[in-house]
Design a protein that fits this description.
Elements (H helix, E strand, L loop, with lengths): L16 H10 L5 H12 L4 H16 L7 H8 L5 H15 L3 H13 L13 H21 L8 H29 L5 H13 L2 E7 L7 H19 L11 E4 L13 H21 L4 E3 L7 H12 L10 E6 L5 H15 L3 E6 L4 H11 L10 H15 L8 E6 L3 H11 L5 E5 L4 H11 L3 E7 L5 H12 L5 H6 L12 H6 L31 H12 L6 E3 L2 E2 L2 E2 L4 E6 L2 E10 L3 H20 L2 H17 L1 H12 L3 H25 L3 E3 L5 E9 L2 E5 L7 H12 L3 E5 L5 H13 L7 E3 L4 H10 L3 E7 L2 H13 L7 E4 L5 E4 L5 H13 L11 E5 H16 L19 H16 L3 E4 L14 E4 L14 E7 L4 H10 L5 E5 L3 H10 L4 E4 L35 E9 L7 H7 L4
Parallel strand pairs: 1-2, 1-8, 2-3, 3-4, 4-5, 5-6, 6-7, 7-8, 9-13, 16-17, 16-19, 17-18, 19-20, 21-22, 21-26, 22-25, 24-25, 26-27
Antiparallel strand pairs: 10-11, 12-13, 14-15, 15-28, 23-24
Helix pairs in contact: 1-13, 2-15, 3-16, 3-17, 5-6, 6-7, 7-8, 10-11, 11-12, 15-16, 21-24, 22-28, 23-25, 23-27, 24-25, 25-26, 30-31
Length: 1051
């Protein structure tokens, strides 16, 4: 952990920047309590009382000003984001600005405004913005409420008027309200307009940093458009003829807007291509001395941003300038080490680096991503006051002698107390404040008057429709009730509540980290630990993993049937790598029919003893197995890649899912296997309890060779069954390694027989054996039918079958959806794992009103995918499993190409030695044109009209499959309507439709897609057990003592 308390001593100055970057990375997710204690040393103030007095006076002075309450402050006072109304206002505004067709817009208005009580906001504010929003919303709310009235009365005159006007009129009124709101937050639609609108503020002493609105680029075309926007803005600032005294405006750029794959996995490509784009903008800006600042983005991209910044900064065309800067987010645990690294870079070259210190704008997302990724801790602080402490610690460092002449500090804050602290620390150091356009006018008018220091306004420029994602980030950052922004100017809030020093506030907590936000390992509570993930975007996690993976790539594995804990002998078969056919991964011996029957003999004998072992002991073996899997993750990842062609991230996810299955089923078994005492007459004891069924067969697929294999086996074993497990022929080595680890974890050798082999020697022998008491199967629907018939043909007890089979998975997208988000989720759902997931998207239904934009983005995004060696981090799509799978997919591709249906095809590099197939998208008129599932990277696209939604749903249901469905709609009514009508096992709304998490999204279909119950769900174990009840006549030995004891009691 970085010793923040010693930062001002400057010991780190002896390091080289490249070496110190590893120190930065090591602080990625350090223990929050320990690190905050370090930061508190730096953030502590000498004279707290004097600071509070100054901050109090500043707030009093601000509140006296005529412009104390800006429109945005008024809006936030009325509709803070912790109210239903505030959230709906944002959702509605964003969606309305994007929805192209009127019918959907009207439906969206009805949906969003039905649930909120807008009336109470009318007339509570004299500010145009609030009343425009409230008026439009109340009018619309009345329409909806009138329709919902039960008594049939027409309501008020206003109600009748609105009823006659209908949604289209209200839509117009709402759009006007949104435009008023847009103008409040956007300085201009173009840079020229922004310069014109900003002149009065510049005359007053302010200057600007312009931000061209827009989100991350998905395609080269998007990136080129954003590049052109930045270039035009720089040109306008170079030509700016403003003659006032305020400093020259600058430009802020987002790296994710300038490259379609701005991600760590593509580091080499990004540094080269994106580095060149940024350099070109910097060259242009330098000619007119227009400063450029790189905006901060998500934590995963931080280290890549630093490397790119350094590359551009050190270029001969940039040397000697001192106006190329960076934004640092104080909520990040790496913030202070990043500032130290920037100091090293600046000192080594001698050019000053402008650094804008902000609080941070992705906090809620960072928390969620960390939980999903199974990290050890969070990369951000979990309390607002902790971020404030970090901000002040960073500010003290930035204003220290160590940075003088090397870093130009820029403090972006709307917090009057923070402003006071910085003014008291600064002395005669040169620095500036920054604020957001539309917020904090009165605060900084006062600061300019009283302190005379420069203030720069961060101002978005662009079309109103691009505003909302930016705005929602700003409001999440500044808009909740706890925020300083509107409390500062709200006369109802006592001044002294706003001037507590964050160190004092933080130290009032016994635990400095927020205990109400559980750490990712504790996400599921005490009963089950979350599986451990690895973040390959961070050097401190990637480099140790890479070193371990490298030690496995050239290993050879061998597999054989494992019965009674011993390997059986037989003829070995070579196992070849699906992406490098010349490479042998190992060899495996297949079981014979005789070995299969003998194995079942042994399992039958072992059942009684295993079933009698207390469930807690069986569960503990699963938990130890989970620990073993985590310990051996690099080996298992390498084997999943080499044998099954899995990407590295898929390998991490696979091991984590297997771990989750073990821990989840262990916890479920402890809960489910508790004996239940039933009520009944006196003198009698009645109990119900669960037991295993006998010998269970588990038949698993190649697409999840570890997770599904172990999910089936662990469930059957923990319930007290003995298990005969047949892994897929293509991926037996993974299964062998898994069973070996189970034995190491304490599983007795005689309760699990692993039998690699084919259907003839193993599968059909197992399913025909009368001693098999149940089957868990994942695979094709056709094979499930064969197994079902084999079980039915036996002259023995009826055995349950748990089947998870194929799907014709669709996604329905209406015109309220955000095309960029849709395409991200479509590409991920259709092409991740080369489309070889049970849940993968096969048919995309997109409403025709936005189809053109969605398809254009889809083409661009597909063009950027990398097909190739899955052992490389920069590969997006690996091979399909074998030659047979490839040939079947290619036949379908040829057929649709000949029919002229091609939309897009990802280029495949020449010379690949494996079972590769290009990701491809085709147009269809209907899902009915598909006669079977095509299990690979093939997407089909169908467009639909607004009025045909029910027909789309009927067509999806008519396929008979019911595994997964995606829905993208901002209209909750639409999403609920679809969800209610489809016959689908797993429905995913406004996200991708793959990657179900154990215990969170239990997975399994209906109809032709499976029998249920869902794997990783609370009912799964019940199919592996039999129930028993026990009734005891407790009076048989004489008398009813328990009843007699009750007779002596008081009435």
């Amino acid at each position: 952990m970085f010793k923040a308390s010693e930062a001002l001593q400057g010991d780190f100055l002896r390091s080289q920047p490249s070496e110190f970057l590893h120190t930065v990375s090591a602080n990625y997710a350090v223990d929050e309590d320990s690190y905050l204690r370090e930061l508190i040393e730096l953030a502590q103030a000498q004279d707290l009382a004097a600071l509070s007095r100054k901050a109090n006076q500043l707030i009093i002075d601000v509140r006296k000003r005529d412009n104390a309450v800006d429109s945005i402050d008024a809006l936030l006072q009325q509709y803070s984001l912790d109210t239903q109304e505030g959230i709906m206002l944002m959702c509605l505004a964003e969606a309305l600005l994007r929805v192209p067709d009127a019918d959907t817009a009207d439906a969206l208005i009805r949906d969003k405004l039905n649930a909120a009580q807008w009336d109470r906001h009318v007339g509570q504010s004299e500010h145009t913005l609030v009343n425009a929003a409230a008026w439009g919303l109340v009018m619309t709310g009345k329409v909806v409420n009138l329709d919902k009235r039960h008594d049939g009365t027409p309501g008020t005159v206003l109600g009748r008027l609105v009823k006659r006007s209908g949604e289209p009129v209200i839509r117009g009124a709402m759009m006007q309200a949104m435009k008023i709101m847009g103008r409040q937050f956007v300085l201009g639609r173009t840079i020229t307009e922004a310069l014109k609108n900003g002149k009065p503020q510049r005359d007053q002493g302010y200057t600007y940093s312009f931000d061209m609105l827009g989100e991350a680029a998905l395609t080269r075309a998007d990136a080129a458009k954003y590049f052109a926007d930045y270039s035009k803005a720089i040109a306008a600032l170079v030509d700016d003829k403003y003659k006032g005294a305020s400093p020259k405006p600058t430009i802020s750029i987002k790296l994710s807007a300038l490259h379609p794959h701005y991600e760590v996995a593509r580091e080499e490509q990004v540094i080269e291509e994106l580095g060149e784009s940024v350099l070109e903008l910097v060259r242009q800006a330098r000619k007119g001395d227009v400063g450029i600042t790189i905006d901060a983005e998500e934590a995963d991209r931080l280290e890549l941003s630093l490397k790119l910044f350094e590359k551009v900064y050190r270029h001969p065309d940039v040397q000697g300038w001192g106006n190329f800067g960076l934004v640092v987010q104080a909520y990040s645990k790496r913030a202070l080490p990043v500032l130290c690294w920037l100091t090293l870079v600046a000192r080594s070259q001698g050019d000053r680096i402008p650094v804008r210190l902000v609080k941070g704008a992705y906090w809620d997302s960072e928390i969620k991503w960390s939980q999903q990724a199974g990290l050890a801790n969070y990369p951000v602080f979990t309390r607002k006051e902790a971020t404030d402490v970090s901000y002040l610690a960073c500010a003290r460092y930035l204003l220290s002698p160590l940075t003088d002449g090397h870093i130009y500090p820029q403090f972006a804050t709307h917090n009057a107390h923070t402003v006071t602290c910085i003014l008291s620390m600064a002395g005669d150091r040169e620095f500036e404040f920054q604020r957001l356009h539309g917020m904090g006018d009165a605060l900084y008018d006062t600061v300019i008057e009283q302190a005379g220091c420069p203030v720069r306004i961060y101002a978005p420029v662009g079309a109103h429709k691009d505003l909302l994602p930016y705005l929602v980030r700003r409001l999440l950052e500044n808009g909740a009730n706890s925020s300083f922004v509107h409390k500062l100017v709200d006369p109802r809030v006592p001044v002294e509540t706003l001037t507590a020093h964050p160190v004092a506030t933080l130290q009032r907590h016994t635990v400095l980290a927020n205990p109400r936000i559980p750490l990712p390992p504790a996400l599921y509570g005490e009963g089950r630990r979350n599986s451990r993930g690895i973040n390959m975007n961070v050097l401190c996690e990637w480099l140790p993993l890479k070193e371990q993976l490298d030690s496995w790539w050239n290993s050879r594995w061998s597999g054989a049937p494992l019965v009674n804990g011993k390997r059986l002998s037989g003829e070995a078969r070579p196992v070849l790598c699906p992406y490098q056919l010349s490479h042998q991964v190992g060899e495996v011996v297949w079981a014979t029919a005789d070995q299969t029957r003998e194995a079942i003999d042994g399992l039958s004998s072992a059942f009684v003893r295993w079933n009698a072992i207390p469930v807690d002991q069986r569960a503990a073996i699963l938990e130890r197995t989970a620990d073993k899997l985590e310990e051996h993750m690099p080996e298992l990842m390498a084997l999943c890649t080499l044998e099954a062609g899995k990407l590295l991230q898929d390998g991490i996810d696979e091991v984590r899912e297997a771990v989750d299955f073990c821990r989840y089923y262990a916890a479920q078994a402890r809960q489910r296997f508790a004996t239940i005492t039933l009520p009944g007459p006196t003198g009698e004891s009645n109990e119900i309890y669960l037991q295993g069924r006998g010998v269970f067969a588990c038949i698993s697929p190649w697409n999840f060779p570890l997770a599904i294999f172990l999910g089936q086996v662990s469930a059957a074993l923990v319930c007290g069954n003995t298990v005969v497990a047949k892994p897929a022929e293509q991926t037996s080595l993974v299964a062998v390694r898994c069973v070996e680890l189970m034995h190491e974890a304490g599983l007795p050798g005689d309760v699990l027989a692993l039998l690699p082999g084919d259907g003839k020697q193993v599968g059909s022998v197992v399913t025909a054996d009368p001693r098999i008491t149940g089957v868990a199967f994942t695979g094709s629907t056709q094979t499930a039918h064969i197994i079902n018939r084999a079980l039915a043909a036996r002259d023995s007890a009826i055995a349950p079958m748990i089947a998870e089979t194929g799907g014709q998975n669709a996604m329905i997208v209406d015109s309220t959806a955000l095309p960029e988000q849709v395409v991200k989720d479509v590409v991920h759902s259709a092409f991740q794992s080369a489309g070889q997931r049970c849940s993968a998207l096969r048919v995309l239904f997109v409403q025709e009103d936005i189809a053109e934009r969605v398809i254009e983005l889809l083409k661009g995004a597909m063009a950027e995918l990398h097909v190739g060696d899955p052992a490389r981090r920069d590969t997006d799509v690996g091979p399909v499993i074998d030659a047979e799978a490839r040939e079947g997919l290619l036949a379908h591709v040829r057929e649709l190409k000949q029919a002229g249906r091609l939309i897009a095809e990802t280029p495949v590099p020449p010379g690949l030695d494996g079972h590769f197939i290009a990701p491809v998208a085709f147009r269809l008129d209907s899902i009915n044109e598909l006669t079977k599932e095509h299990f690979g990277p093939i997407l089909h696209v169908v467009t639909w009209r607004n009025r045909d939604l029910d027909k789309v749903i009927d067509d999806i249901n008519a396929t008979g499959f019911g595994l997964t469905l995606g829905v993208h709609s901002r209209n909750e009514d639409t999403a609920e309507h679809i969800d209610a009508r489809v016959r689908i096992g797993n429905v995913y709304i406004n996200r991708n439709q793959i990657g179900a998490v154990v215990g969170v999204q239990p997975f399994g279909g209906q109809g032709l897609s499976g029998t249920g119950p869902k794997a990783g769900g609370p009912h799964y174990l019940l199919r592996f057990v039999t129930e028993r009840t026990r009734t005891i006549n407790t009076t048989a030995v004489g008398g009813n003592a328990s009843l007699l004891s009750l007779g002596d009691g008081e009435p």
